[in-house]
Amino acid sequence: MDINIIFKIAAVGLITAIINQVLKKTDKDEIATLVTLAGLVIVLIMIINMISQLFDTLRSVFGMY
Description:
Blueprint: H1 4-25, H2 29-62
């Protein structure tokens, strides 16, 4: 596993948290919630791609088609 993916996930989390706090300070709680959900979806897509690669690797190692 590459360490860069961990840094990417951490960066998305930090950016999401900062934007969330700024929006909450300006009384835009609804948009802050949407930003948080968008950050979560981005990270989930990254993780789903990694899981897909894992299953492809397992399939090729065990010879399942």
